[in-house]
Automatic annotation (TrEMBL):
Keyword annotations from UniProtKB, A to Z: ATP-binding, Exonuclease, Helicase, Hydrolase, Nuclease, Nucleotide-binding
Transmembrane segments: none
Gene3D superfamilies assigned: 3.90.320.10, P-loop containing nucleotide triphosphate hydrolases
Name of the protein described by the UniProt record: Helicase-exonuclease AddAB subunit AddA
Entry's Gene Ontology molecular function annotations: exonuclease activity; helicase activity
InterPro entries, per database record: P-loop_NTPase, PDDEXK-like_dom_sf, Restrct_endonuc-II-like
Provenance organism: Staphylococcus nepalensis
Lineage: Bacteria, Bacillati, Bacillota, Bacilli, Bacillales
């Protein structure tokens, strides 16, 4: 018998997540309630009238629903109905209502709330014989015969079609024509492709100047950018690269000025080799 209990961290994260969800729902409710100009129709659904009576009996702290009630509400209706019900009700004293000074407002500004309760059995659509006839099971669809064998054969042929160029569908990277042209022009001019790529992305990812890094190691984000550059330019071959070939390949990147001269010491060679030997390569 194994008994498990949720950790304190998981309970805390769940409570934070639920709180954010309720807060977002209340912001959406605020927008929905304030965007109407003349009329606003609120439609809710409950299982029984006892649920409505329970909402009416909800305590209101000051002018707000209790935090515990707001966090436990399952639907927006549970947050709206207790307030409107107290405002509309004439069977409770004024000090228990949400709006205590509503009568002090000018008549055109006073809200007019009308609560209408309908039983679901009275408003649900009736099932007709036509609806029952339109209902078909999967077996009915499979056994269905249209009487047009030529059309059926054409449909079956189209559904069973297989793309003939399967190898072209599993290419590891995607490059646009503009990017290929830009890369070719960069290689011909001897300019670092990494510098051109920064303009294409629209974000500056230049490393710090050399005089700022003379006695400092690369930061984590700079090492991440370096590793990303190496992985991006890895050649995909049928025969996997060896460690010596990878070392020569990185020297080639340095010669092309794609990475800096002192960047080799910060490249995590073991992780790159692990990737090359994995099924992802």
């Amino acid at each position: 018998l194994v008994i498990t209990f949720p950790s304190l961290a998981s309970v805390t994260l769940k409570a934070i997540n639920d709180n954010e969800i309720i807060s977002e729902e209340m912001r959406l409710m605020y927008v929905a309630l304030t965007i109407a100009k003349e009329q606003l129709f609120l439609i809710g659904r409950v299982k029984s009238e006892q649920a409505l009576d329970k909402m009416v009996g909800t305590a209101i702290a000051g002018d707000k629903l209790p935090v515990s009630y707001r966090l436990s509400a399952k639907t927006p209706f549970e947050l709206i109905y207790p307030i409107y019900a107290k405002h509309q009700s004439h069977s409770i004293t004024n000090d228990l209502k949400f709006e205590q000074d509503i009568n002090d407002l000018a008549l055109p500004l006073q809200p007019k709330v009308e609560i209408q309760i309908d039983d679901y059995s009275d408003i649900k659509p009736d099932e007709t014989e036509e609806d029952k006839e339109d209902y078909r099971t999967v077996a009915d669809i499979i056994d269905y015969q249209s009487g047009q064998p030529e059309v059926e054969r054409q449909i079956e042929q189209q559904l069973a079609f297989e793309y003939p160029y399967q190898k072209d569908m599993v290419k590891p990277t995607k490059q646009s024509v503009s990017e290929l042209k830009r890369q070719l022009e960069t290689e011909e001019s001897g300019t670092s492709y990494e510098r051109v790529r920064q303009y294409r992305l629209g974000a500056s990812t230049y490393e710090r100047p050399q005089f700022l890094r003379q006695h400092q190691k690369r930061k984590a984000n700079e090492i991440g950018t370096l590793m990303h550059t190496v992985m991006q330019h890895l050649p995909f071959k049928t025969e996997r690269m060896t460690e010596d070939e990878l070392d020569q390949y990185i020297d080639h990147l340095i010669e092309k000025n794609i990475i800096e001269d002192d960047a080799k010491q910060d490249i995590r060679m073991k992780e790159v080799v692990k990737f090359i030997n994995s099924d992802l390569y």
